[in-house]
Amino acid sequence: MRIIAIVNQKGGCAKTTTAVNLAGCLATDGFHVLVVDIDPQAHATLALGLDPDELDENLYEVLAEPGGGDHLKAIIVEVAENLDIAPSGIVLSALEQKLAAERDETRTERLDNALGALGDIYDFVLIDCPPNVGLLTFNALRATREVIVPLETSRFAIHGVQKLLETIGLLVERIGHEIDVKVLMTLYDGRTRFSRKTLAEVRALFTDMCFDTVIRLNVKLREAAGKGLPICFYAPSANGALDYAALAVEVEASAPADLAAVEIPGAEPPSGPREIVVHFRDADASDVRIAGDFNDWVPDKGVRSLIESDGKGRVWTKVLQLPPGTYQYRYIVDGEWREDPENPAVVTSSVGARNSVMVVR
Predict the structure, then answer these.
(1) pLDDT tens-digit profile of 176-210?
(2) Of residues 264, 216, 222, 224, the one with CA closest to residue 243
(3) Confidence of residue 310 (pLDDT cuts 50, 70, 90)
(4) What's the CATH number of domain 274-360, 3.90.1150.10, 2.60.40.10, 2.40.240.10, 1.20.1090.10?
(5) H-type alpha helices, the chain
């Protein structure tokens, strides 16, 4: 079971949007997923179609008393196939004051103990944290080995993430285990020079900590939340659905070294490689990568890349070693996932993404 906390002390950076829509895409891919809404605002609960005021119990009952973890299964609600939620409510805002008054040294381990009581029921647990680094967020960090930090394209957001990373570094010393932190660019508007410049700065600053996927600004994400559905259920062909589907693939393929990777349903490793060469031309692009089911959808994993000029612009050459078979793939151009413009063979995935297809004989 992989437990991933969605953390940022800044509001409005798409934490809940990421938790809910990543969960929906993982569930669509065949994984059993639990969303843990540890934010008293209960936005993830609302975004998955539940009214917090109509629920008799929520995470407060689980976390308020030692041993409450045995109660976690009782409050979990199934919201779709493969997708459940442990809901929140405004009463959770009183938890920090209640626990701060106690001398219980395990108050930061309540969530960890509760999730441990679930066993191996779930493949993924995604924790939607409140916009601060208080007791609730610390409970989430205790319980996880992986953190996703959503980051919108603004100067202040970059500064805030740097401070957050410093805070997580200090907490790791107390937690006693390493935490793998990944930065996810959200609310990205590729039409503006400012967003493109900020994306480049973030990639230069955080390097390998950045996901290759970028979540584009998309009104359908708000509409889906209003309907109480993940975007992949509401509008599977929208940019938001395609972006979170790509993120799901990256997450599936990127378990930290000390954690067992979750087996992708139906995946079978091929054998007998051939050298395949593909080209991508774009005069305006500054970074082009390729990802497909041949490399677990991790951009440029196992790929030799060359950059040249043909007089009309830059040409990216990708050299792949592939066994005979049929493969789906996409290019990632300056953070945006695209099908191959020179390959008319495409298929539509289960979440509506148009993937290019190559056949290796």
Answers:
(1) 678 889 999 898 888 888 888 888 888 888 888 88
(2) 216
(3) low
(4) 2.60.40.10
(5) 15-28, 43-47, 59-63, 72-75, 95-100, 110-116, 135-143, 155-175, 193-206, 219-227, 231-234, 239-252
